[in-house]
Specification:
This is Merlin. One of its GO terms (molecular function) is actin binding. By secondary structure, this protein is an alpha+beta fold. The chain folds into 4 domains: 78 residues, Roll (Ubiquitin-like (UB roll)); 101 residues, Acyl-CoA Binding Protein (Up-down Bundle); 94 residues, PH-domain like, CATH 2.30.29; 116 residues. The protein has 13 helices and 12 strands. The strands form 2 sheets. The protein has a 7-stranded antiparallel β-sheet, covered by helices on one side. The relative contact order is 0.04.
């Protein structure tokens, strides 16, 4: 067979791009493929078995449509583009996510889609609930909170809160991160699938969760209403209130739904009840509403029947998988705990090692300081020893000086005592000399008086002798050539002899007075010399006392 023949037998294909919430995939499809063929290819690529919740959505002329499974892809009104883009999204929502979502991939796709709807404000959520949901989203993405790893600012690039909430409260990004982190820290030990399931369990209780809204009119007067289709039934809302329905039809209470052109009719199971009719803007809208109603009703009835073999097997596998994951998570938690304990022990050992190294370093530094101090002390000891020797020498010299000073002091005291004694003796001598001087002065006065009396007597005797001479020897006057000595040489009478004796006594007295006066002058001179010596000695002693005081 030729190569040209092989090329002719190859089927024609077209390219499609499948966009999931977090990924994009491209496939080559045969021209004859139906919507189910493409859908099954995508589900196999994703490993998805719970296919009944999902569909392929495309947008044409601003309206969202779902790819029909029983018609060829190219025969449907799809965008004319290459590759053709489809969004793989959840078309129907479970009533209870924890019971119906069996596969982890199914749960993960629902989590991503519901999270996007909340952030895009397609599902209203209160600010408090958004913070809690954001904390579970962070737990699913980052795992357990670690303050050493998850430092402030680690959520700066994550979109976690709707813009409406950010506008409503004037809080900084750091404040929102602090609020989310406070909840995030409490989710420690929760695995990723558990965090996503907790997120969905909170989201399924929101009023707008899983509801597809369509604008309708209750009559031809075009009263604006909203029709909502979800897993529990059909709900009628006012145009400005998507939370509380004005009227609801549960799937179990609906007997039939049909449309004719733009009119859609809901017939209750109770035949007496009023038939509800409404009008849509386009025929396509009625077809889409009917399609969603049929799918949700089938799932509603399916949940209330015995599970098929496939569902039972899937639930059994899900239970086994959950048990296995639980054991695995427990094992991982135990290993993580052991690892954390080991890390803490390691950190403690490292801290202890660092502490010991620090202590050793401090000890080495202390040893070096001790050695330096020891060397310094040795030098100081040597200096102190030399100083001690010097002090000992000085002490010995001081002791010798002290002994000398004591001896000197004793000598000084003895000399002082002797000097004082000499001074007292000098004072006594001076007193005696004064007394003797007074006595001598008195005696000299008496002697002077006696001398004066003697001279007076001598004069009187001479006068008397002259008078007698004149009377007895008148010729003595005429012959003056004879001297009294000649007369004394002659033998005078008794009176003249007495006069000569008297003269001798006066001379002797005068000589004695002169000798005593000379003796007194000699003694006075000696006494003055002695006083000068005593003054010199006292002055020398005073100088020695002053020098002794300075030494001490």
């Amino acid at each position: 067979m030729s190569i040209r023949g092989l090329k002719k037998k190859q089927p024609k294909t077209f390219k499609v791009k499948i966009i999931t919430v977090d990924a994009e995939m491209e496939f080559s499809c045969e021209m004859k493929w139906k919507g189910k063929d493409l859908f099954d290819l995508v589900c196999r690529a994703l490993g998805l078995r719970e296919t009944w919740f999902f569909g392929l959505q495309y947008t044409i002329k601003g309206m969202c449509n779902w790819l029909k499974m029983d018609k060829k892809v190219l025969d449907q009104e799809i965008p004319k583009e290459d590759p053709i883009s489809f969004h793989f999204l959840a078309k129907f929502y479970p009533e209870k996510v924890e019971e119906e979502l069996l596969q982890e991939i199914t749960q993960h796709l629902f989590f991503l889609q519901v999270k996007k709807q909340i952030l895009d404000e397609e599902i209203y959520c209160s600010p408090e609930a958004t913070v809690l949901l954001a904390s579970y989203a962070v737990q699913a993405k980052y795992g357990d909170y670690d303050p050493n790893f998850h430092e402030p600012g680690f959520l700066a690039h994550d979109e976690l809160l709707p813009k409406r909430v950010l506008r409503q409260y004037q809080l900084t990004a750091e404040m929102w991160e602090e609020k989310i982190t406070a909840w995030y820290a409490e989710h420690r030990g929760i695995a990723r699938d558990e965090a996503e399931m907790n997120y969905l369990k909170i989201a399924q209780d929101l009023e707008m969760y899983g509801v597809n809204y369509f604008p309708i009119a209750q009559n031809k007067n075009h009263t604006d209403l909203l029709l909502g289709v979800d897993a529990k039934g059909i709900h009628i809302y006012s145009i400005n209130n998507r939370f509380s329905p004005n009227k609801s039809f549960e799937w179990s209470a609906i007997r039939n739904i049909s449309y004719s052109e733009k009119e859609l009719t809901i017939k209750p199971l109770d035949k007496k009840a009023e038939v509800f009719k409404f009008f849509s803007s386009q025929l396509k809208v009625n077809k889409l509403i009917l399609q969603l109603c049929i799918g949700n009703h089938d799932l509603f009835m399916r949940r209330r029947k015995v599970d098929s073999i496939e569902i039972q097997q899937m639930k059994a596998q899900a239970r086994e998988e959950k048990a296995r994951k639980k054991m695995e998570n427990q094992r991982l938690a135990r290993e993580k705990q052991l690892r954390e304990e080991a890390e803490r022990a390691k950190e403690e050992l490292e801290r202890r090692l660092f502490q010991l190294e620090d202590e050793a370093r401090q000890a080495n530094e202390a040893l070096l300081r001790s050695q330096e101090a020891a060397e310094l002390l040795a030098e100081k000891a040597q200096i102190a020893e030399e100083e001690a020797k010097l002090l000992a020498q000085n002490a010995a010299e001081a002791e010798q000086e002290r002994q000398r000073l004591e001896i000197t002091a004793l000598k000084t005291k003895e000399e002082k005592r002797l000097m004082e004694q000499k001074m007292r003796e000098a004072e006594l001598i001076a007193v005696k000399l004064v007394k003797e001087s007074d006595r001598r002065a008195k005696e000299a006065e008496h002697l002077k008086q006696d001398l004066h009396e003697a001279r007076e007597a001598e004069r009187k005797a001479k006068q008397k002798l002259l008078d007698i001479t004149r009377l007895n020897y008148p010729h003595m006057v005429k012959y003056p050539q004879y001297s009294p000595a000649d007369a004394r040489d002659a033998n005078f009478d008794k009176g003249s002899i007495k006069l000569d004796l008297k003269d001798i006594d006066l001379k002797r007295l005068s000589f004695e007075i002169e000798r005593e006066r000379l003796d007194y002058l000699e003694k006075s001179r000696k006494f003055e010399d002695r006083l000068k010596e005593l003054k010199s000695e006292i002055h020398a002693l005073k100088l020695e006392e002053k020098q002794s005081g300075l030494y001490s």
